[in-house]
Design a protein that fits this description.
The chain is α/β, with parallel strands linked by helices and about 200 residues long. It has 8 helices and 6 strands, in the order αβαβαβααβααβαβ. The chain folds into 2 domains: about 30 residues; about 150 residues, Rossmann fold. A 6-stranded parallel β-sheet has the order 3-2-4-5-1-6, with helices on both faces. It binds adenosine-5'-triphosphate and magnesium ion. Adenosine-5'-triphosphate binds next to helix 2. It is found in: Cytoplasm.
Length: about 200
């Protein structure tokens, strides 16, 4: 690198640092946030659990509601339950195309939502994950308005992560951070089976 290039690089970095420092100084509000992880690509649930690990690593308590999932083994749940810092509530009946019974699905949704509401009013929980909640909202098994009310009334330092494809626009509008994960490729489309440790 010539002296000239070195000086130009340094000037650019100084400018960049000033810009970043200014943005950090401007962000002076401290409160819990709503994060939406949506889109058809792989990584929504794993990202949500990455955030739970981050939270628990700092000594906080977290809560996870797993809509849709069923209570088959799931690596992240098996590990995080051992910490004693993460409360789990799983919708026991599994996928809606397995039960094929709308009344059972609605009852199971309402049951698991009770636990969700209780987590959203528990100030000891720094983070609450509502995993795959978008599906029960889209099917109308749970009222979006009710979820919005519970989100609005939650403790001020509590953050919430909502995951699932096709997130309703009202929740996107309400959220503070929204990521739309898009599939560029997925191994399943090439005929590769879902794998323990990778997909669950
Ligand atoms: P993950 O749990 O791996 O983070 P996800 O939460 O983003 O995935 P979901 O829509 O909840 O994705 O689907 C759950 C399962 O479907 C996972 O096993 C995941 O690998 C798989 N999956 C995700 N995206 C795709 C896709 N585009 N095509 C096929 N299978 C997918
Ligand atoms: Mg998921």
């Amino acid at each position: 690198m010539t002296n000239d290039e070195h000086a130009r690089h340094k000037a650019r970095m100084i400018k960049k640092k000033q810009h970043i420092d200014q943005r950090i100084a401007d962000a002076n509000e401290s409160r819990g946030i709503i994060i939406v992880l949506t889109g058809n690509g792989k990584g929504k649930t794993t990202a949500a659990f990455g955030n739970v690990v981050r939270c628990v690593g700092h000594g906080y308590q977290a809560g996870v509601i797993q809509f849709i999932k069923g209570d088959w083994p799931c690596g992240e749940r098996q590990l995080l339950q051992q910490t004693g810092q993460v409360a789990f509530h799983v919708m026991k009946t599994g996928f809606t195309w397995d039960t094929q019974d709308k009344a059972i699905d609605i009852a199971a949704t309402q049951e698991v939502w009770k636990a969700g509401k209780s987590m959203l009013s528990n100030a000891n929980l720094r983070l609450v994950v509502l995993d795959e909640i978008t599906y029960v909202l889209r099917y109308g098994y749970l009222s979006t308005e009710e979820v919005i009310n519970a989100l609005q009334q939650r403790p001020s330092m509590q953050s919430v992560i909502i995951t699932g494809r096709g997130c309703p626009q009202v929740l996107i509008d309400m959220a503070d951070t929204v990521s739309d994960i898009q599939p560029i490729k997925h191994a399943f489309d090439a005929g590769i089976k879902a794998q323990e440790g990778i997909d669950w």
